[in-house]
Description:
Number of strands: 13
Helix content: 25-40%
Largest sheet: 5 strands, antiparallel
Shape: elongated
CATH topology of the largest domain: Arc Repressor Mutant, subunit A
Radius of gyration: 30 Å
Structural class: alpha+beta
Number of helices: 9
Distance between the termini: 75 Å
Strand order of the largest sheet: 8-7-6-5-9
CATH architecture of the largest domain: Orthogonal Bundle
Amino acid sequence: MQEERLKVLDGLIASGYCSDVGYRRDDILEKLNERVNRPISLRQFSEDLKKLMRMAEGDGVTLNTEYKGVQKFGNPVTSKSGNSGAENAGSGLSRTRYIVYKYSKPKYSVYGTGLNNEDMGILVLASSIITSISGLEISQELQVIVKDLNKKVGLGELTELSTIIEFDENPELKGLEFLPVIIRAIMDKKVIRLTYQDFHKRKFIMYVHPYFLKIYRSRYYLFGWNEDAAMIHNYPLDRIQEVEPEFMSRKIEYNRSRKINPNEHLKDVVGVSVYMEKEVQEIRFKVNKERRSYLFTKPIHASQKYNEFTKTFSISVRPNRELESELRYCGAILITKNIDFEPPKKAT
């Protein structure tokens, strides 16, 4: 029982709840009561504090007790002496005294969480974003970890991110069930065997060195080195039929030398299709006034520029079908002519 109380109390102090901004001893006791679901006496609270002090001293950290005074009218004042229950009527104004507990080392925690309110908030946000991705089996495990950490830190009831942000996702999208095994293979640097079905319903078995995943227009793509084709390729997850992370039929060492940086690999394209055979070229176009404002706030590509004199946009990219689709969507009138958006023809 005491161990549970100590963890909660340590989390409150380490997280910054008991900071200069102001949780009184009664507030701390209230938080403790909420976490352990039983009333805690001042005597028990004092004994728990002494135990935490001794544990912190073992790490060379002290648990300091500070006395604060808040004027009823005016700014907060700090006093180095006095007792927590006293009231000071100096200058004719009522002052309420209270105690604040702080570790001498910032972000220190006896139980090692080392998280403050801001840290925990970021962790909760990251967790919520990850758990919003359909198909990730780690979601439930991650939620349990965050809730356990929250008990130690003492943030109270966690707000579900889904009540704040609505994510654009399609739970019916095929292939999401392969995300966990693909992510694990990327992290562990393991070759995987894919059963892949193309647009014409033809099935292929291929060995892929997985490098990274990209989401484009709510669709997941796996980028990796194709062992047999000896090239970098992307694979839409909704066309993958099966993923085998551990196979005995063929021993292949993970190709680290070919691993690519996602930002570098995709910097010259719109979307996911990278045709290295094509040169980066400047493409100039015009749009109507309404679409112009749209492109100012949401550029087609990072290289996008606007010429105020000619009222034209320009981007420097390798042409592909995704770019063609974007230009059509915004009603672009092409000034640059004879752009080949099609993928290069394979040699026969």
